[in-house]
Design a protein that fits this description.
Layout (H helix, E strand, L loop, with lengths): L1 H11 L21 E6 L10 E10 L4 E3 L5 E4 L8 E3 L14 E3 L4 E9 L7 E13 L2 E14 L4 E5 L3 E3 L6
Length: about 170
């Protein structure tokens, strides 16, 4: 055994061996380190009885992870949760497997939301949203939103929610 150890030392000489450690995932984002803003992208979401908005989530703290499909709620002017449900992605049931998104400090992620904004259903009903709320762990992010969402009578109105994706760019100072 000692000969083997001596042979290894002679073969390696003064070369050092290092093992790469597996990358450590950042912690889960806290609502207190995130800021929410909305962008209608100059009407890009509007047309043919549809509307929507881009939710922009900026990380003002250290690197962290955020769910790709956080829970979204629409609330009325009195703060009551509206009967609005996320529609599963077309063609996938129950939907794609979503891995958390890494948000670097100072960077942001975006989620596109779309909904029906006109009475196109036989027996249409509508709800008026005054606020959009995103659940982050035990906290929430909220922003004012003036929107009317339509759906079929007797059913919750539906909205499409694209998965969160990080936006490339420079970190804010």
């Amino acid at each position: 055994m000692q000969r083997f150890a001596l042979l290894v030392v002679m073969l390696l000489g003064s070369q050092s061996i290092s093992f790469a450690a597996a990358p450590v995932a950042p912690p889960v984002c806290r609502a207190s380190q995130l800021r929410l803003s909305l962008d209608g992208r100059d009407g890009e979401f509007n047309g043919m009885s549809h509307s929507g908005v881009e939710l922009s989530i900026r990380n003002v703290g250290p690197d962290c992870r955020l769910s790709a499909l956080p829970t979204i709620q629409f609330r009325d002017a009195k703060g009551r949760v509206l009967a609005a449900a996320r529609r599963p992605p077309a063609g996938m049931h129950p939907g794609p497997v979503m891995v958390p998104v890494r948000l670097g400090g100072g960077h942001r992620g975006v989620i596109d939301l779309r909904w029906v904004s006109g009475p196109v259903f036989p027996g249409s009903r509508s709800v008026r949203a005054a606020t959009v709320v995103i659940r982050i762990g035990t906290g929430t992010l909220r922003a004012p939103l003036a929107a009317e969402l339509y759906g079929a009578t007797g059913q919750p109105v539906a909205f499409e929610q694209q998965p969160l994706h990080a936006v490339e760019g420079m970190a804010a100072d």
